[in-house]
Amino acid sequence: MITADERYYTSLRRNIMAIIITVALMPLLAMMAIAGYQFHTAYRHKVVDHLAALVDRHTMHIDSFLSEKLADISTLAAIKPLEKLQDPAEMEKILAMFQEKHRGVFVDLGLVDERGFQVAYAGPFRLTRAQYGDASWFQESIRQPFTVSDVFLGLRGLPHFIVAVRIESDGRLWVLRSTIDFVAFNRLVEDLRIGKTGQAFVVNAEGQFQTQPHARPGVDPQALLRIVRGETPKEIYSTAVEGLEIMGSSGNIYKMPTSPHGASWFEYTVPETQRRYLVFYQSLKGGRWYLFYLQELEDAFHDLYKARTLTLVVLALSALSVAVTAWALSRRVVQRIIQVDREKEMMNEQVIEAGKLASIGELAAGIAHEINNPVAIMVEEAGWIQDLLEDLERGDALDVEEVRRSLQQIRTQGARCKEITHKLLSFARRTDPTVQQVQLNKLIREVVALVEQRARYAGVTIRTHLTDGLPWVAMSPSEMQQVLLNLINNALDAMEKSGGTLDITTRYEDGRVIVDVADTGEGIPQAILQRIFDPFFTTKPVGKGTGLGLSICYGIIRKLGGDISVNSAVGVGTTFHIYLPPGDGVVETPPAGSQTLSKEDS
After folding, report:
1. Fewest C-beta in 10 Å: which of 25, 141, 551, 558?
2. 403 compared with 545, residue with greater pLDDT
3. pTM of structure
4. Where are the beta strands (DSSP E) in 114-171?
């Protein structure tokens, strides 16, 4: 069974561990939280800015590619007469020159009249006299000077796109067109690949792919365009973003800010797979195309997550180290406290013993007088027997009855001395701190019998008012004797000049056993009444009091789970109240009536 002391020390050890762990880990957690947040924010901004700059430069590179190819066709249209462009042989020479200069990016060349018929053609396909009148790129070319078409299959059945320039000559319109190698353009776009999942692709304004992604990410380009245009429903778009305004309660997305490099970005969660992507985009062809760059968040912030995992591991190891240290330190501290408490208990026992010796010293005068009377009688009777023996030697008859009477008197007075010394030795023996069930009234009678002679000598009348049937009290009998003796001796000291009355009362009220020790002495001034239980505080003359008596009483009563208080008035007297918890429900056997002891009793 776990004792109260063991529970106390276990709780103390836990509290010490909690304090050490809290004090050690709180600054560490705060520092790591602040540093982690700063690092997390700075690293995310660094990654985003870096990717935004790459997307922006790649967009400029793609725009430059398209502009350069359009410029080559425009230059050709400006410097070559229409007659030359209508010559297939000349077109073959020009195409060969373009392919050599641009490494095959230009697939073919063609001149188309205003009706949509290709009048001159150079290239690998048989497209002479091909009809483009209904082609969207041709219609657009007739309306504006320069055209870069969307990717389409066309007559050749292969993905490609057209760059075209409108030529006006002799009131007629012509279109000089060239097919751009789709594979080369696709390779140019795919050059933007970072990490394991990073990829770029181009879509037109309708959300149709203009390049072929190297791996389908499962992202609908039309959904991305709806996000860019602020048309995305709430259930499709993930709002866990940085650099994007918070979605409003109506489900509308506010305008996304543009990074310092020109490329905008947001985070996107694919509804089907729940994969989260970091998406950058930039417009091409004056807003008719969009370059998108996608990379999974775990891939884009791989180093950040790795650093965070490493930080958590270090934090866990640090917490474990602190916990082990706190456990060892708290165990050591508690062991030291246990040792100090044991030393304190031993010292308290020594102090109690010293108090008992001091109390015995105060009783010495009364006990000496108590023993002196029977000793004087024994000496007198012994002298009388000696006289009788001298008369016998002179021949007188021996009064046997007188001798017997004297011997009986000596025996009676010797028993009286033995009883007095027995009481004194019983009180003076070493204190036994063992708690047991005690009859409090019986204990009070024993203490009163011990001090009755000193009371007579001091002119004090001791009156006991002991209530019958009190519950037994769990206590150390010798320690309770010490408490009662200290209080009675203090009362006798207060009344030794003029005598008085000492009343000792026991009663049972409010579930507690109460002992009142009241004297009619000088009383204690209110100014010092709050200090009387302090160690080494005394109002007695130097050399007469140690100041430990009431402090010992207070410590003993509190250890028993009780309390002690005092009421006093100068010139009236002092009353000490002792409150003790009852024991196991045992009730005292009703004693004989109360007794009154006075200085006249002998």
Report:
1. 558
2. 403
3. 0.55
4. 118-122, 146-148, 161-169
